[in-house]
Write a structure and sequence with these properties.
CATH architecture of the largest domain: 3-Layer(aba) Sandwich
Order of helices and strands: HHEHHEHEHEHEHEHHEHEH
Bound molecules: manganese (II) ion
Largest sheet: 8 strands, parallel
CATH superfamily of the largest domain: Ureohydrolase domain
CATH class of the largest domain: Alpha Beta
Number of strands: 8
Radius of gyration: 21 Å
Number of helices: 12
Shape: globular
Number of domains: 2
CATH topology of the largest domain: Arginase, Chain A
């Protein structure tokens, strides 16, 4: 800068003085280490439900994240973050709306109420001109939230991609699910494989097209899921790919898949994607997961893409956390996804 100053004073006195001062003031007054995204407005929604999961406790996730100052921390990254609070459940649905296949789902009526409420709430956030940030809660929430995002963009016939970062692909159908828990099935419904009430949350035949879906960090996959991923040719980057190619190459490929012919993508981040040594506070941990830097690099590249339509952070279970390390990494990952940078 001082060299530039010296050089420019040789040219024009005014220009030479004004330019470095303007540059200096940018350095002094800009928000530190934040990407220039601050015009994006965000809307935060809590999904305090874990009845779609095997292990309970993630319903406390949104409360604990807020108690740790999440909103104020995010407002240091982007000025406009509005907290819409937690979703409000509607009435118990008429049993007649469910298909035979859906009837095998555990807690069917209540998970449906929660997903229907989240579907409408997510669409409302988008209608307000804000990018949704959804705090889980178990991963069954994505059936509602991604249906809501898809419905919003369906009005202009725009498609929505999905980057699903998770140890598990969550693409069982009720027929292949070993547990009957909805948190292992949302993608099968979103992709239109299971007819019934959940599919009808979407205004189109299916909320998403599998050709715009990319998995990252897979390492615990059920047999039915493995067959489906192969048959449908779904883009899936397991931990092997992260190990061999590095997170940078993997995320860039995932972004390419999720943005091909779409408006952008939803990032659905399950905390069990991270290694359990890093993030123990989650219901179905599996060893061999993402490191601190791998997970942060992913968020950095997502933020740089400027194609994020909605962000969800799921399966944070405070009851299983150890010394607050999971809540800390969860908040840190959200900050990075919103544009915080190292330099
Ligand atoms: Mn999951």
């Amino acid at each position: 800068m001082f060299l530039e100053f010296a050089a420019s004073t040789k040219r024009d006195f005014v220009r030479g003085l004004v330019t470095p001062i303007a540059r200096l003031s940018k350095v002094i007054f800009r928000r530190d280490n934040v990407m220039n995204h601050s015009s994006t407005k965000y809307g935060l929604l809590g999904f305090p439900s874990d009845i779609g999961a095997t292990v309970s406790g993630s319903k406390e996730g949104p409360r604990v994240l807020r108690e740790h100052g999440l909103i104020d921390i995010l407002r240091r990254v982007v000025p406009d973050v509005h907290d819409y609070g937690d979703i409000t459940l509607g009435d118990t649905p008429n049993d007649g709306i469910f298909s035979a296949e859906e009837r095998t789902i555990r807690n069917l009526h209540d998970v449906y109420r929660a997903d229907k409420a989240l579907c409408e709430a997510t669409k409302k956030v988008l209608e307000d001109g804000r990018t949704p940030i959804i705090l889980g809660g178990d991963h069954s929430l994505s059936l509602g939230s991604i249906s809501g995002v898809s419905n919003f963009y369906a009005r202009h016939a725009e498609n929505v991609g999905v980057i699903w970062v998770d140890a598990h692909p969550d693409i069982n159908t009720p027929a292949t699910s070993p547990s009957g828990n909805l948190f292992g099935m949302p993608l099968a419904f979103l992709g239109g494989l299971v007819p019934g009430a959940f599919q009808k949350l979407s205004d189109r035949d299916k909320a998403i097209d599998f050709k715009n879906l990319a998995f990252i960090a897979l390492r615990d996959v059920d047999e039915g899921e493995r067959s489906l991923i192969r048959e449908r040719g779904i883009t899936a980057f397991s931990m092997r790919d992260v190990d061999l190619r590095g997170m940078g190459a993997v995320v860039n490929d995932a972004i390419r898949v999720a943005t091909a012919g779409t408006k952008g993508f939803v990032l659905s981040f399950d905390l069990d994607a991270c290694d359990p040594l890093l993030a123990p506070g989650t219901g179905t941990p599996y060893r061999g997961g993402l490191t601190f830097r791998e997970s942060h690099l992913l968020m950095e590249l997502i933020a740089e893409s400027r194609k994020l339509l909605s962000l969800e952070l799921v399966e944070f279970n405070p009851l299983l956390d150890k010394g607050g390390q999971t809540v800390e990494i969860a908040i840190s990952l959200l900050e990075t996804a919103l544009g915080r940078t190292i330099l």
